[in-house]
Write a structure and sequence with these properties.
30% strand, nine-stranded mixed β-sheet, mainly beta, globular, 16 strands, five-stranded mixed β-sheet
Length: 312
């Protein structure tokens, strides 16, 4: 069992452990064996919607008012008290109107083209996260998408990101970045010295070919886009074997701007697979058993940027 030291500003120092090099299975499915059986159930992969995977109305989690304002008011506290479920961020199976998604040829999307309204509803012990068009009744956030790895990605990797995020968001500007659950991927906060803004990037399958290859892919992406690494959340920070089936924990990741501290923080809440979702459904998540730390927190501090050599 890996051990973790969860830290905030100035205290974050998670020990690193052997890398998981095998990607997760592709589809969240419920176990088919009877209770007590020893077969290993499938576990969810990165939880991103695609066009056509519309979630059924019975599992949308539209029960009671949204708690998104409570989440946005104190994201770290809220996520310490609630199991965040980011599977099915798009309840209608497609991105909210006005949100531009990255493509392999254009992996970076301007932040002002990624704005959506955050909704948070409770269901089955999970705080279900979903996005609707910008300008709705709730916090405005930037959505960070995911592009799955494909051909030739062992050399170049697969990246999706948003650019031009203000270092200090002004009134009315989004102060949170949301992305889907992580199971083998990494999320990076990057600095653009040319215009003194931040970029956030989702790197697919960081651990698939080993950490060294993942770092080489990231290094190439940084040089190509003239960006500097500041903070990262990688599988080595969140992935643990848990439960009788030995399924690895995933993470629900987000970034938020702390007005009091005057800087961004990246947060990854560890989550464990509980029950698989059917076609178009959300899986149900739970806190990892065995007393594992619940959250990873790292400041996006330009004065103390992360080094590629720190990633494992």
């Amino acid at each position: 069992m890996k051990s973790f030291k969860i830290g905030g500003p100035k205290s974050f120092s998670p020990p690193r452990a052997p890398q998981l090099d095998t990607p997760r299975q592709s589809t969240p499915t419920a176990p088919t064996s009877k209770p007590g059986a020893t077969s290993k159930p499938s576990a969810p992969q990165d939880g991103f919607d695609t066009v056509g995977s519309k979630i059924s109305s019975s599992v949308r989690g539209l029960f009671g008012p949204s708690q998104a304002d409570s989440f946005a008011a104190n994201p770290t506290k809220f996520s310490s008290q609630n199991v965040l479920n980011g599977y099915k961020l798009f309840p209608e199976g497609k991105p909210p109107q006005g949100v531009t998604l990255p493509t392999p040829n254009k992996p970076m999307v301007p932040a002002n083209q990624s704005v959506a309204t955050l909704n948070v509803q409770q269901q089955h012990g999970n705080a279900n996260l979903s996005l609707s068009p910008a300008g709705g009744n709730g916090p405005q956030v930037n959505y960070l998408h995911y592009l799955s790895s494909g051909q030739n990605t062992q050399t170049n990797g697969s990246f999706a990101g948003i650019s031009d995020v203000p270092l200090r968001p002004g009134k009315g500007e989004p102060n949170m970045v949301m992305t889907g659950p992580l199971n083998g991927c990494a999320v990076h906060a990057l600095h653009n010295p040319a215009n003194d803004t931040l970029s956030f990037v989702h790197q697919a399958d960081f651990s698939k070919y080993g950490a060294q290859t993942g770092k080489q892919q990231l290094d190439g992406f940084l040089k190509q886009n003239n960006l500097q690494l500041v903070q990262s959340l990688t599988p080595n920070d969140y992935s643990h074997l848990t439960g009788k089936h030995g399924i690895e924990t995933g993470a629900t990741a987000f970034a938020h701007y702390d007005n009091a501290a005057g800087k961004w923080n990246m947060v990854g809440q560890l989550n464990d697979w509980k029950n698989g979702g059917g076609t178009g459904d959300r899986p149900q998540l739970q806190r990892p058993p065995g007393g594992l730390p619940q959250q990873w927190t790292g400041p996006v501090d330009l004065q103390n940027p992360l080094s590629l050599n720190d990633l494992k």
